[in-house]
Design a protein that fits this description.
- The complex is a heterodimer of chains A (334) and B (317).
- Chain A is mainly α and 334 residues long.
- Chain A is 75% helix and 3% strand.
- Chain A contains 14 helices and four strands.
- The longest helix of chain A has 29 residues.
- Chain A starts with 9 loop residues before the first helix and ends with a helix.
- Chain B has 317 residues and is of the alpha/beta class.
- Chain B folds into two domains: 150 residues, Rossmann fold (3-Layer(aba) Sandwich); 131 residues, Rossmann fold (3-Layer(aba) Sandwich).
- In chain B, the strands form three sheets. Chain B has a six-stranded parallel sheet with strand order 2-1-3-4-5-11, with helices on both faces. A four-stranded parallel sheet of chain B has the order 7-6-8-9, with helices on one face. Chain B has a two-stranded antiparallel ribbon with strand order 10-12.
- The relative contact order of chain B is 0.14.
- Classes of the chains: A mainly alpha (334), B alpha/beta (317).
- The interface between A and B is large, with 38 and 44 residues.
- Chain B: Its main location: other.
- Chain B: Keywords: Signal.
- Chain B: GO terms for molecular function: carbohydrate binding.
Chain lengths: 334, 317
């Protein structure tokens, strides 16, 4: 099924597919069983909705990150970028209230600002990496510092808050939904499905994988390497914008501490899901599993309080490593 | 860490560039080293530091200020060394990022005959600083705890959101627990919300799934209170419980002034304490007024009646 994206490894992958692929799924199932045993409310509608809606921000970003990493890149700036986009979006919406009034046009304008800012930020990263040819790690590390401090500066060291009435109008975008499914979950699901299709069925997905596997070979195979690489960062930038659109209505504010460490959570989710950190192979649905594993760990630790909260970080770390160990054992059987 | 170092460089560069090019002979310089504005409280602290520096520069033309903000303890040490070496400061006002790593460097500043004012977090060796200005952490927990003990009755259930695991957080929580001891209040759970809105929102959502009956929340910080309030209203349980935050964030104080039933009281822990420290240090330099010793700013309880006195619309916090 994924063979088209990595033809040279096809035979060995097919043999090891079950264990390799099942690792993260097994870890997820184990977590769900553990959660259900520890607390009867774990599988309740409210808790499931909470966890899925909370996962949506990192999840939407992680889908974009899957393409960047598959293409052999990395983006450390997404957490700060989300904070920056949220800040710009809030300021733009506050400034537009006198002209547009409070209503659908204002919210649409805010969403447009968020998407455009994300697009611009992604293009800038992509341009510096693909055209100017600076290491992705350095470009995005720099961008991470820039966006974080710009956010703090915009907020004057404090918090940017959306106008109270505008917030009340916008709030349902996070808290409501259709047929009892909250909007962030719907958007996350759509992004994941489209991402999965793009990765498997479109030339863009195949080109990402061949770029990540071997840039020279990709170039000689008539893949427009620069354009594909730039495309992955632009896609990620836009998806950070989408995540921000879902994030802002939740608390209606942004500050220097918004989105701290989201980049690492997104990268961790991608790797847990089976995408290779060195590029060449990506699995979007695996990323979704990775995101769910990360949020469930937090949720279970809060619901169970079996250990000292000081140790939460240790437990998270051990589970993340275990999930990847399960996966790698499958691979070493190759 | 790497990122913060870069940022600090820029901040220090700006601070140095903004100083006057030609200092007069009798000019005295005060160095101010504080953590950078990474969350609401520190944002407020940065605001008050800058505001008091502006005010003092106008009042006392003979005073110069160097302000450096640091994202970690190592950077703060570098900042302080630079201030002593390149600016020849006469007094240092420092809010130590962490007590242990800053103790040695601040001690060596003191040994060079420079006035030292320590703010908020004490050093690990006593007697280094000339002046110590701080908020009252045990008092912060105690005042909140006393309100819970008076207001709730035996058998009522509460949950607690804690800050980033630090000595400061432990002091507050221990004083809170001591204050509610014997009142029969059940503390159902305590988890770290890290003084962060998003973390507090997630933790509160999970508390609400886990416990059927919660009567009150000690959020211990106004950023966390905002996250918790949002989670409570999402669950539609506004009527069941109230929330006590802390530190007097302007949005929270505003809601209290409007009489929000979910926010009965708040406890102060003023970020403006940095202004107290800078003003007193300046006063000591320009006049014979004695300012050495300890200045502990009490934690007061804010209610709807007196909320207006604690409302600073211009501060970012």
């Amino acid at each position: 099924m994924t063979d088209t994206t990595a033809a040279p490894q096809a035979t060995s992958r097919r043999r090891s597919l079950p264990l390799h692929v099942l690792g993260p799924v097994l870890a997820l199932i184990a977590l769900i069983v553990l959660g259900a045993m520890l607390n009867s409310n774990f599988l309740s509608y409210a808790n499931v909705t909470n966890v899925l809606a909370r996962s949506a921000f990192i999840g939407i970003i992680a889908v974009g990150m899957t393409f960047v990493i598959t293409g052999g890149g990395i983006d450390l700036s997404v957490g700060s970028m989300a904070a920056f986009i949220a800040g710009v979006m809030i300021m733009a919406m506050n400034a537009l209230i006198p002209t547009l009034g409070i209503g659908v046009p204002l919210v649409l304008a805010g969403m447009g600002v968020a998407l455009l800012t994300g697009l611009a930020a992604g293009m800038l990263n992509g341009f510096l990496i693909a055209k100017v040819r600076i290491e992705a790690f350095i470009v995005t590390l720099g961008a991470m510092g820039v966006y974080r401090s710009l956010t703090t500066w915009l907020a004057d060291g404090g918090t940017l808050s959306l106008d109270f009435d505008a917030r009340t109008f916008y709030r349902p975008v996070y808290y409501d939904g259709i047929l009892g499914i909250a909007w962030p979950i719907i958007v996350f699901a759509l992004v994941a499905i489209l991402g999965e299709l793009a990765m498997r069925k479109t030339p863009f997905g195949r080109h990402c994988a061949s770029l990540g596997a071997n840039e020279q070979v990709a170039k000689y195979s008539a893949v427009k390497v620069d354009r594909v690489r730039m495309g992955t960062y632009v896609l990620l930038g836009v998806l950070v914008g989408v995540a921000t659109i879902m994030y802002v209505p939740r608390l209606g504010s942004a500050s220097g501490s918004t989105g701290v460490l989201w980049e690492l959570e997104a990268i961790a989710a991608v790797i847990i899901g089976g995408t290779l950190l060195k590029g060449g192979f990506g699995r979007v649905w695996g990323t979704v599993i990775g995101v769910l594993i990360l949020s469930l760990i937090d949720n279970i630790l809060n619901l169970a309080s079996i250990v000292s909260p000081y140790l939460n970080g240790t437990i998270q770390g051990v589970i993340v490593i275990l999930a990847v160990v399960l996966q790698r054992q499958g691979k070493s059987a190759e | 860490m790497q990122r913060r170092t870069i940022l600090k460089g820029a901040a220090l560069g700006l601070a140095l560039a903004s100083g006057p090019a030609l200092a007069q002979e009798d000019t005295m310089t005060i160095g101010v080293a504080i953590p950078s504005a990474t969350h609401g409280f520190m944002g407020g602290l940065n605001y008050h530091a800058q505001a008091s520096i502006e005010r003092l520069e106008e009042t006392y033309p003979q005073l110069d200020f160097v302000l450096a903000t640091a994202g970690d303890a190592g950077t703060m040490v570098n900042d302080i060394e630079d201030m002593v070496a390149t600016r020849g400061i006469d007094a240092l006002v420092v809010l130590p990022f962490e007590s242990e790593p800053l103790t040695g460097p601040v001690q060596s500043v003191k040994e060079q005959g420079i006035w030292v004012t320590v703010v908020d977090r004490g050093l690990s060796v006593e007697g280094i600083e000339d002046l110590y200005v701080a908020g009252d952490n045990p008092g912060f927990g105690r005042v909140a705890g006393e309100y819970f003990a008076e207001t709730l009755s035996e058998g009522d259930n509460i949950v607690v959101l804690r800050g980033i695991p630090t000595t400061l957080d432990n002091e507050r929580v221990e004083a809170f627990q001591a204050a509610i001891e014997g009142s029969g209040i059940n503390v159902l759970d305590m988890q770290h919300g890290n003084w962060n809105r998003d973390d507090a929102f997630n933790v509160m959502q999970d508390f609400l799934s886990k416990y059927e009956d919660i009567d009150a929340v000690w959020a211990a910080d106004d950023d966390m209170a905002i996250g918790a309030l949002e989670a409570i209203s999402q669950a539609g349980r506004n009527e069941e419980m109230w929330v006590v935050g802390g530190a007097g964030m302007k949005q929270i104080i505003k809601r209290m002034m409007e009489g929000d039933p979910m926010l009965p009281v708040n406890v102060t822990y003023p970020p403006a304490q940095i202004a107290t420290a800078i003003e007193l240090t300046a006063l000591g330099l320009v006049s014979p007024t004695p300012v050495s010793g300890r200045f502990i700013i009490g934690s007061q309880i804010i209610t709807q009646e007196n909320a207006e006195q604690f409302y600073f619309p211009d501060s970012p916090f």
